[in-house]
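Notes to self, EF-hand domain-containing protein:
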Amino acid sequence: MTHTWRFFRSSGFDQVMIDTVSDLENLKDLDKKLWTALACPTKGLELDARTLTYIDTDGDGRIREPELLAAIDWTLAHLADKEVLFQPAGLTLAAIDGQHPDGAKILAAAQQLLQRLGKANADAICSEDTQDLGKMFPANQVNGDGLIPAALTSEPALAETINDIIVTLGSETDRSGEPAVSAEKIKQFFADIRVVNAWEAQMTDAISPFGQHTASAYDAFKAVAAKIDDYFVRTQLAAFDDKATTALNASDTQFLALAGQLLALNNADTQSLPLAKITEHAVLKLKHGINPAWQVAISQFREQVLGLDLDELTANHWVQIKASFVAYQTWLAAKPSLAVATLDTAKRQHLANGLIEQSLLTLVEDDLQVADAANALVELDKLVRYQANLVTLVNNFISFSDFYSRKEKAIFQAGTLFIDGRACDLTVRVNDMGKHATMAGLSNTYLVYCDCTRKGSPEKMTIVAAVTAGEAGNLMVGRNGVFYDRLGNDWDATVVKLIENAISVNEAFWTPYRRLGRMVSNQLQKMASEQDKAIETKTSENITAGIGKVQEAAKTPVDATKPTSPPVPFDVAKFAGIFAAMGLAVGAIATAIASVVSGFMALIWWQMPLAISGLLLMISGPSMIMAWFKLRQRNLSPILDANGWAVNSSAKVNIAFGESLTMLATLPKGAQRSLKDPFA
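result:
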């Protein structure tokens, strides 16, 4: 290896520095074990989405090490001035390698686009110039992608056919952003038309017993066929046994049920009644006695199929009518299930001549003729975006220098969460909170999950923020804060989940005293509650007993001759014993306190602070030591891995670095402060 690599140390581990062209050129030789990450997702990153799409050549939503190296090699090969990668966004035309075959096409495309944008004298091009695909690839001009939007042709018949293809077979997106069709869809469309037309050509007089009115006659027949079949079956059963006649007609129970309803002709109960009154004579009277719910359908059937001069229908005639539609039903069942069948028959017949199909395929061929020039515009867009974003991605992938330098936010940092008097900068978007929390809990970091919404916007997102300084304070589920994304938009943030871990050594110092305070407070509250309950119970018992005695006394007559029970004498000895025991306990406590105070006062003045410090250290020391060890184990890797990253190293967040990620509320330097508190 001839290249000399430089590493920087931050938060306890080494990372490679990548800030020269030579570093980029030799990245393929750097041991992959020294890369901070080996893969990252394309979603949820604060980086240009189109740049990430270009790098993700296999389209799996993840960027891997070979794809990143390929993007770097491609970029370096098309630049004459490679230092432009480390300069502010904006690709100078002079930086493009015009000697490279593809570079010359990209340079020509850049000059053409700048002229189209009215910037013919500009010497640089940026991603804003290539952002609007409509300007790069106008819909009314060929663009080399082999897709044809309706706006590409000035002939109304061709444009109409393109729209018909889109409606029936769906569209693809042209480089201009417009819906368009490909050669494959054009060929499929016309092939489907030929299939449907061939099926229609099978129609003959034998298949259509009613000529051009066969379709409407069949619809009228189909609407009533099942009901008429039902009627004639019922009449045959009535002829078979007259005892069945009553049962086959509507029963009294059915009519009673209908009487209690708000009736309508389309009511299911009304329609379920027989078509007409069932008798043993198998003749259906068409003008009178028809179930009102079927009157309209029968009238249409009579008009379309039987003719208005026919007033009744026999069973034999009905069998003949059904037989006349058999061939039509068979033909109809063979109808191709193709979307083009919805088009008007006359239109399909017109399109079948093949001239329009050939004209559309010619448009595709004409479009592909400019593929090289159009592809050069795409390559230009890629090169412009790589110049602006590739080094940023490298410094958030191969190393986390943007994150650990604290000069720029890393691409995985979504923004800043303000909550409970602090600002949390290590904030990451989360797709699946449950799945993320399972992995992120291994980071040994205090994590706060928040649901974020904006007024008037349907968009919603979930974030997780790492609290790395200060104390837990009043952080709790349901607490509200404000989240500012990287664009400066503010979101209402509500805490929905906490993963509690140590936050700081300072918090650990006070933890034993807080626990003691909570324990004393809980015990006092418990004692007070129990005492209050005991008094309430005793009082209730006494009142109940007193009322009982009064009631008993009222029932029992007073006997003046019977002596009353003397009162229980006061036990002085027992009272003295209780008082003595209490005195001994108070005395022991007072003696112990006096001994401690007297011993402390006997110390030399400079020994007193040491004694106090030693006592505090004895109480808080173990808690602080445990917190110190846990804080040194805080790790960024699980937080990112839970989002789809493949972090390749232990990305530690030590105590000092953590304090820079969470800023606590402090008074501005030089601010005036009044210490007088009228409510102290």
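- The chain has four domains: 7-137+371-404, 148-202+342-369, 211-333, 412-506+635-664.
- The CA atoms of residues 113 and 119 lie 8 Å apart.
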